[in-house]
Backbone:
């Protein structure tokens, strides 16, 4: 079935349509200077295609939030979630086929790149059974795939650029159709822009951008001047989903409106110079009455733990008798046994920590531990050690304390991977395979496992090298522990 959605009208008043199925296979690039109508074009495309295909919008300015009321998109405020949480949200959006808007407006440039990369990574890493067709619209794409390094860190730039490259280069086989919009082609990474087969070029003034736009549309250089004459909302179209020859069209109206409307001229208020001076130069308010910045919404687990603590506060005070050393050891052994039982479940490595903690608490209560159940923070630390295969005796070793100190510089979800590699190095076991590292991290992606090792190596904690047969050896910096050679492509954890 061919679905042709109306984008507007041509200069001859004919209806200009876009073949949605062809777009899903060939991707789209939109270019135009600020004020040329790019966001209006994207809004028209999203509104017309909403009944036919799942959508997600990477929205750096909060312009597309209005889609939620009219078309039922789920708005995800990125400032309220961690990178890991956004990655999980991306995977679940694909699984449940929910259209989303990732609102990044409250974040600075670096955090916008990091969280957009995490969300796109979740879309990209979804299991094959959930590769449903999806339009992935990225407004102001030059922010997420810059052609040159800017003021953000190299790590954030690499993460974001890698996610955008995956979307445009490898997303088609996974059902992801990238639609990217940029103010200037010169600001956009070439390997990202080059993968689009459909183009909508709006008003632009710089010679270099006009020349590149003309080249992409197959126009002669002398025709490039035409891009200066385009009005707001007018675009030159070319591509298998649009037209086989360059076609000028005007984008039609939209049902929803952006929050950031075009500025309109209005008369200044009438006021005397004395009144203006008294108002503008008045003493600033005291620090303690300034309105506080909006804090991120607490995590669901944090809310549950807070409710639990409040419930405990209102209970009658119970005086707990001190336990002997034998009783403490026996309780610790019971907790460790329960944790091992939870981790023994077939899919335990790939379940979110909230679900694991809930099952852990239930098992502890069944065992009669009562108020002795570890809180969420303690459970996270126990889980890191469990995924690394550590026991209580090993964590008390002085040498292992150095490993724990070094692991603390890594994000919490990576510490278990580092400790697992450190344990293999300490014992002289073969280096864990990519599959074992991915499982310890809670992922099925072997590529992500290799990225983890690269990141840990960039932090100066390990050195990775291959021997003559392609087997991997990891050496811990300063401690001089080294793993035995291990096959990175092995499907199972190397035998101890």
Residues:
């Amino acid at each position: 079935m061919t679905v042709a959605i109306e984008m507007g009208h041509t200069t001859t008043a004919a209806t200009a349509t876009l073949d949605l199925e062809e777009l899903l296979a060939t991707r789209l690039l939109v270019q135009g200077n600020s004020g040329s109508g790019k966001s209006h074009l994207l809004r028209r495309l999203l509104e017309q295609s909403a009944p036919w295909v799942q959508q997600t919008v990477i929205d750096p300015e909060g312009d597309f939030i209005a889609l939620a009321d009219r078309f039922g998109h789920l708005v995800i405020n990125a400032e309220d979630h961690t990178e890991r949480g956004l990655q999980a949200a991306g995977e679940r959006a694909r699984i449940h086929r929910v259209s989303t808007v990732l609102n990044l407006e409250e974040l600075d440039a670096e955090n916008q790149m990091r969280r957009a990369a995490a969300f796109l990574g979740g879309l990209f890493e979804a299991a094959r059974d959930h590769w449903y067709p999806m339009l992935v619209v990225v407004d102001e794409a030059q922010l997420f795939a810059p052609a040159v390094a800017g003021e953000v860190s190299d790590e954030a730039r690499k993460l974001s650029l890698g996610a955008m490259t995956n979307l445009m280069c490898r997303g088609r086989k996974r059902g992801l159709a990238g639609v990217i919009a940029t103010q200037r082609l010169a600001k956009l990474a070439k390997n990202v822009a080059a993968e689009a087969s459909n183009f909508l070029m709006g008003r632009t003034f710089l010679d270099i951008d006009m020349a590149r736009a003309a080249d992409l549309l197959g126009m002669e250089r002398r025709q490039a001047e035409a891009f200066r004459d385009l009005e707001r909302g007018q675009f030159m179209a070319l591509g298998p989903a649009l037209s086989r020859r360059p076609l000028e069209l005007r984008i039609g109206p939209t049902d929803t409106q952006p929050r950031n409307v075009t500025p309109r001229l209005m008369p200044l208020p009438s006021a005397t110079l004395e009144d203006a001076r008294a108002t503008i130069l008045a003493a600033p308010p005291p620090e303690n009455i300034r309105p506080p910045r909006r804090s991120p919404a607490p995590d669901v687990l944090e809310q549950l733990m807070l409710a639990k603590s409040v419930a405990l506060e209102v209970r009658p005070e119970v005086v707990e008798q001190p336990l002997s050393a034998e009783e403490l050891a026996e309780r610790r052994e019971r907790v460790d046994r329960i944790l091992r039982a939870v981790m023994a479940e077939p899919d335990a490595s790939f379940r979110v920590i909230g679900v694991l903690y809930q099952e852990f608490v239930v098992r502890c209560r069944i065992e009669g531990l009562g108020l002795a159940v570890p809180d969420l923070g303690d459970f996270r630390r126990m889980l890191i050690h469990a995924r690394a295969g550590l026991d209580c005796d090993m964590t008390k070793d002085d040498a292992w304390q150095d490993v724990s100190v070094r692991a603390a510089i890594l994000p919490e979800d990576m510490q278990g991977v580092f400790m697992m590699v450190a344990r293999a190095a300490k014992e002289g076991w073969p280096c864990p395979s990519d599959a074992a590292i991915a499982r310890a991290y809670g992922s099925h992606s072997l590529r992500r496992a290799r990225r983890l090792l690269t990141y840990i190596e960039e932090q100066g904690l390990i050195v990775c090298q291959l021997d003559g047969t392609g087997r991997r050896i990891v050496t811990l910096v300063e401690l001089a522990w080294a793993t035995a050679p291990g096959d990175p492509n092995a499907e199972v954890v190397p035998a101890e």
Summary: Residues 217 and 252 are 22 Å apart (CA to CA). Residues 314-319 have pLDDT under 50 and may be disordered. The radius of gyration is 28 Å. The first strand starts at residue 4 and ends at 10.
